[in-house]
Amino acid sequence: MENNQILTDLKGKTAIVTGGTKGIGRAIANELAQAGATVIVSARNQPEGDNSHHFIAADLTNPADVAELEQEIKQKFGGVDILINNVGGLTTPPGGFSALTDEHWESELQLNLLAATRLDRIFLPGMIAKKSGVVIHISSVAAKQPLWNLNMAYAVSKAALNSYSKSLATELASKGVRVLTVAPGATKTPPMEKFVSDYAQSSNITVEEAFKQLLAQTGGIPMGRMAEPEEVASLVHYLVSPAAKYLTGTTYAIDGGSLPVV
Ligand SMILES: NC(=O)c1ccc[n+]([C@@H]2O[C@H](COP(=O)([O-])OP(=O)(O)OC[C@H]3O[C@@H](n4cnc5c(N)ncnc54)[C@H](OP(=O)(O)O)[C@@H]3O)[C@@H](O)[C@H]2O)c1
Q1: Is 246 a catalytic residue?
Q2: How confident is the model at residue 162 (pLDDT cuts 50, 70, 90)?
Q3: Among 19, 31, 27, 24, CA closest to 241
């Protein structure tokens, strides 16, 4: 037990969690702080009354904001040991290919792929110089199980993120930097709850019925419920810790058994 605690201890490490003010990102920030890390969170809006982590305001789809975030972190912290690229989300309308404009495609790629590549470019040189560091890309089961009528461009952007993450892991494996992908299934966060309730409203059905119908389209969740953000955070904590020192280049689904693949 004591050994396990030492292996997952993060004292002396500095971590940044993008989108660390809500949902999965907030749960990860809290979990890493509890393990002893100094945690920086970024988002567009400062959370009201929550000063538990160092907050930096930045829209990560805007390179100018990212440059300011880089300056602030380099001045105040020097760099980071752990980078959690959590920012992302489904921002485009349902309805398949004909509902998606160039702007929709670009916005999904900006949020779900390019934000991560920007942050990686900033912080990887410092990790490589120290021959130590971990990068996590928060993807989605949608990358492997796209639903054409619900999330076409989002799923494509997450599939691109998975591929990028794998390439990066291979490039950096001999340089002491680990790169991993975490792919949550449906997780109980505000956008997921809104997604289900919007679907219920547009189909004129109850939220419970909407959840059942959406699940039916994916083959269901064998465990019969969504993940809690803290459950995703717990996996991320393990992956960034010394206990996972031989893990790189792999994708971990955390989905209650929903992905129908071996
Ligand atoms: N929830 C799910 O069921 C689920 C399933 C699979 C994968 N995921 C993935 O998990 C990650 C987190 O999702 P979540 O559901 O926890 O999201 P969430 O609750 O909406 O939180 C998103 C976070 O990102 C910030 N953010 C959004 N757009 C931003 C931007 N342009 N620049 C900087 N920060 C931005 C938000 O704060 P501000 O609004 O203040 O900027 C917030 O802190 C995403 O990558 C998502 O694709 C979620």
Answers
A1: no
A2: very high
A3: 31
Q: Which residue has the higher pLDDT, 111 or 218?
A: 111
Helix 102-109 and helix 148-172: axis angle, to 10°? Answer: 40
Give Cβ neighbours of residue 217 (< 8 Å, ≥ 6 apart): 147, 150
Instruction: Say if CB 259 and CB 253 are below 8 A apart.
Output: yes
Provide the residue count of the chain. Answer: 262
Residue minimizing CA distance to atom 24 of ligand 1: 19
**Which residue has its alpha carbon closest to ligand 1 atom 25?**
19
Distance 230 CA to ligand 1 centre (A): 14
Name which residue sits closest to atom 36 of ligand 1, judged by CA: 19
Band of the pLDDT at 49, cuts 50, 70, 90?
A: confident
Q: Which two structure tokens, joined as six digits, stand for 209?
A: 């019925």
**CATH architecture designation of domain 2-185+228-254:** 3-Layer(aba) Sandwich (3.40)
Residue to probe by mutation, ligand 1, list 16, 18, 21, 24, most atoms within 8 Å of CB: 24
The torsion of the CA quartet 238, 241, 243, 244, rounded to 10 degrees, works out to 70
φ/ψ of 92, rounded to 5, equals: -110, 160
Mutate to test the pocket of ligand 1, among 18, 26, 87 (most ligand atoms within 8 A of CB): 87
- Position 2 scores a pLDDT of 54
Residue with tokens 């949020």: 111
**DSSP annotation string for 74-128:** HHHHS--SEEEE------S-SSSGGG--HHHHHHHHIIIIIHHHHHHHHHHHHHH
